[in-house]
Amino acid sequence: GAKDVIFRVVVDSAGDDIVLSFEDQTASEEAGKMRRDFVANVSHELRTPLTALLGFIETLGGAARDDPAARDRFLGIMAREASRMTRLVDDLLSLSRVEEDERVRPREHVDLGALLSSVIKGLEPQAEAAGVAVSLNLNSPAEMVPGDAGQLVQVFTNLIENAIKYGVSGKAVDISLQARRHHPRLRGEGVEITVSDQGEGIASHHIARLTERFYRVDNHRSREVGGTGLGLAIVKHIVNRHRGRLLIESEEGQGTKISVFLPVG
Ligand code: ADP
Question: Lowest CB count within 10 Å: 35, 110, 161, 201, which one?
Fold first, then answer.
C-alpha cells in the first residue's frame, strides 16, 4: 500500500543565508515505531503468564488450599506458564545477543553435516511425540563453512522444530544439505540446507512478514502449538551475520520449504 513519507524541515542559517532543507525521516520514524511496538509486545507477552501465575498463587493460598486434586492441576498450569516465560526470556536474550554481534563475522569452521545430525538427534523425542519422521540427506558430507556453531545450532533447531510443530502426524520432515558451486539465485559458492515439511503451509501474504519479531500466522494451529514468534527473527539475524540467505517457500495445504544458503568464501 501507499506509505507516508515523513520529512523534517531543517532551517540552517549560514552567514546571511538561510538554508531550508528536507530530510527524509521515514526510516528513523519507522525504527522508532518498531522499537515502541517491540517494548509493548514484550510487556504484553510477559504480562499474560504473570497474571495467570498470580491468579493461581492466590487460589492456592485460598480456595484450593484443602483440595489436593485442584492443587495439582493448578501447579501443572503454573509450571507451564513459568516455562513459557523462560522460553520467551531466553529467546529475547538470544535475539539481543545476535543483534549485538551481527556485524562481527564468525571465524570458526563448522562441519554442517555433523551439526545437523546432532540437532536432529536432540529433536528426536519431540518428533516422535508428534508422529513425524525426520530424515537427513547429506548430499555433500563433511561440508565445512565459516560460522558460529552455537548460532547455527539455533538456526536449524528453530527451523526443524517449526517443521515438526507445524507438520502433520504421519508425514515426513526432510532435511538436505547440498554444496552449491553456482547457486541458481545467488552469486558465489556455498552450502544450501533445506528443511521441508508437509504441513499446512503458509498463505503467501504472511510469508514476507514471518521474520518480524512476534509475528505469528493467526491460525488455530499457531496458537495451539505454543511459541514466542521470535524464532524466525533470530534465524534471520544469524543468517545475515553469516552473509547468507534465507528463502521461505510455502503452499497452503502442501507444506513449507525453508532454505538457508551459507557462503563458504
Ligand atoms: P513461533 O515461536 O510462533 O513458532 P517463529 O518465528 O518460529 O515463531 O515462526 C513464526 C510463525 O510462522 C509461526 O507462528 C507459524 O505461524 C509460522 N511458521 C513457521 N514455520 C512454519 C512451518 N514450517 N509451517 C507452517 N507455518 C510456519
Answer: 35
Select from 257, 108, 149 the least CA-distant residue to 193: 257
Q: How far apart are CA 86 and CA 92, in angstroms?
A: 10
CB within 8 Å of 230: residues ≥ 6 apart? 88, 91, 92, 94, 95, 213, 214
Q: Long-range contacts for 223-227 (Cβ within 8 Å, ≥24 apart)?
A: 225/165, 225/166, 226/84, 227/165
- For ligand 1, the distance from its centroid to the CA atom of residue 67, given in whole angstroms, is 39
User: What pLDDT, on the 0 to 100 scale, is given for residue 11?
Assistant: 62
Q: For ligand 1, which residues put their CB under 6 angstroms from it?
A: 158, 162-163, 166, 197, 199, 202, 210, 215-217, 222, 227-232, 256
Residue-wise pLDDT for 81-98, tens only, equals 898 899 999 999 999 998
Report how far residue 232's alpha carbon sits from residue 93's, in angstroms, rounded to the nearest whole number.
Answer: 14
Residues 260, 160 contacting (CB under 8 angstroms): no
Cα 256 to ligand 1 centroid, rounded to whole Å? 10
